[in-house]
Design goal:
91 residues, mainly alpha, 434 Repressor (Amino-terminal Domain), 5 helices, 2 strands
């Protein structure tokens, strides 16, 4: 199990999550952001990243660490169970 900074635990290592899982997480970030009327720059500021990186994350960019996807979803109010379902549903 890998322990991430926010207390999330995953049973598989990040390299095996692949593009599909990050793509699912990125789509959910975008969906939540639109639903809550959160601007990209506001989300980027919460995550202490540039706006362009936040946009790349919404596109499922594999070069962005999984922890940032999880932090973004947490800031948008997505529960751990929902995040687990998103990751599990990627396979």
């Amino acid at each position: 199990m890998k322990q991430l900074a926010l207390g999330h635990r995953i049973g598989i290592s990040e390299p095996f999550l692949g593009e599909v899982a990050k793509e699912h997480l990125g789509k959910e970030i975008k969906r939540q952001r639109y639903q809550q009327d959160v601007r990209v720059r506001d989300l980027a500021a919460l995550l202490n990243m540039q706006k362009t990186r936040a946009l790349r994350m919404e596109d499922g960019d594999c070069s962005i660490p999984l922890e940032l996807y999880l932090r973004a979803l947490q800031h948008l109010g997505v529960s751990r169970k929902e995040i687990g379902d998103l990751i599990g549903g990627s396979y």
